[in-house]
Amino acid sequence: MRSLTRSRSNRKLAGILGGLARTIGIDATILRIAFIILLFPTGFFPLVIVYALLAFVIPNEEDAIR
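Structure (tokenized):
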């Protein structure tokens, strides 16, 4: 299993969802749609804060290779 890294090639913002999709083996579009759908019932802020924290915690692809 691959380690979780932020995608360099499949990114829209920070590459979190692209990297997560690659790690679990599904299409990134499915994760992006699920993320957007979940934003509304949670009131935006919890998922936005989690996404921002993950952007700082999860390394980029090229940083993880080194």
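The chain has a mean pLDDT of 89. The two ends are 18 Å apart (CA to CA).
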